[in-house]
Amino acid sequence: MAEGLFTVTPLDAPRAARRHSVGVPISELDAVVILAPGTEIELPDGEVGELCVRGPYTITGYFDVRPEPEAAETMAHNARAFTSDGFYRTGDLGMVRFEEGYRCFSIEGRLKDVIDRGGEKISVDELESLLTGHPKVAEVSVVAMPDPRLGERGCAFIVPVPGAMPNLLDLQEYLAGRGVAKFKWPERVELVEALPRTPVGKIDKKAMRAGITTRLEAETHTATG
C-alpha cells in the first residue's frame, strides 16, 4: 500500500508461512494490530478483523491544502482513517496466525467486501470462491444490498455459462450441499451478460452496489403505490 507497511517472509520462515501468509513487517519498529471493524478493540490471535498499522514509514495523516470547506472534509477523513492512538486503518481484513510456531499475518479480504447481515459478518471473498464452482456460473461477484431489518443482505451478480439460467434456489441448494451456514447464502441473484468494470479492468463493485440499491428503491416505491 502507498500509505505504508511492507511485509516479507524471511529465508528462515517455515514454508507454510510463505504459502498461507504475507509474512511479517520489515521493521522492528512497525506495530500491527487486528481490530474489530469500526472499533478500537483489539482481537485475539486467530480472529479476523481490520489490519491497522503504525510505524516509521507509515503515514500519520492525509495532507490537503484546499480551502474550506474541503479542508474540513480532509480532517473528517483522517478521523475515520486513523485510530485515536495513531494506527492507520488499512481497510484490509487480516489475522494473526501461527505456522509451525511462527507468528505472522495473513490478508483475508477487504473490509468493504464484508456483508454485515444483522451483526453476522459474511466474507464476500469466501462466498465468491464457493459460487465460482457452480456448474451454471461462469463469473460471479457478490455485493451487499441494503435491508431495512437486517442492515445488509447478499446479492450475487452472475454471468451464467452459455445456455444456463441459474436462479437463487440453485445457488442456495449448492451452498447447502457444501455445508455453508444459511445466513451466508445470497438472498438475491442478478443475471448479467458481463460484470461491470472500472477503466483499469477491475470489477466495479461500487457500480453494482449503487445499481441494486436503486433497483430496490424502485421496487419498494412500486409496491407501496
UniProtKB/TrEMBL annotation:
<dbReference type="InterPro" id="IPR045851">
    <property type="entry name" value="AMP-bd_C_sf"/>
</dbReference>
<dbReference type="InterPro" id="IPR042099">
    <property type="entry name" value="ANL_N_sf"/>
</dbReference>
<feature type="domain" description="AMP-binding enzyme C-terminal">
    <location>
        <begin position="126"/>
        <end position="202"/>
    </location>
</feature>
<comment type="similarity">
    <text>Belongs to the ATP-dependent AMP-binding enzyme family.</text>
</comment>
<dbReference type="Pfam" id="PF00501">
    <property type="entry name" value="AMP-binding"/>
</dbReference>
<feature type="domain" description="AMP-dependent synthetase/ligase">
    <location>
        <begin position="2"/>
        <end position="63"/>
    </location>
</feature>
<dbReference type="GO" id="GO:0006631">
    <property type="term" value="P:fatty acid metabolic process"/>
</dbReference>
<dbReference type="InterPro" id="IPR000873">
    <property type="entry name" value="AMP-dep_synth/lig_dom"/>
</dbReference>
<dbReference type="GO" id="GO:0031956">
    <property type="term" value="F:medium-chain fatty acid-CoA ligase activity"/>
</dbReference>
<keyword id="KW-0436">Ligase</keyword>
<protein>
    <recommendedName>
        <fullName>AMP-binding enzyme C-terminal domain-containing protein</fullName>
    </recommendedName>
</protein>
<dbReference type="InterPro" id="IPR025110">
    <property type="entry name" value="AMP-bd_C"/>
</dbReference>
<dbReference type="Pfam" id="PF13193">
    <property type="entry name" value="AMP-binding_C"/>
</dbReference>
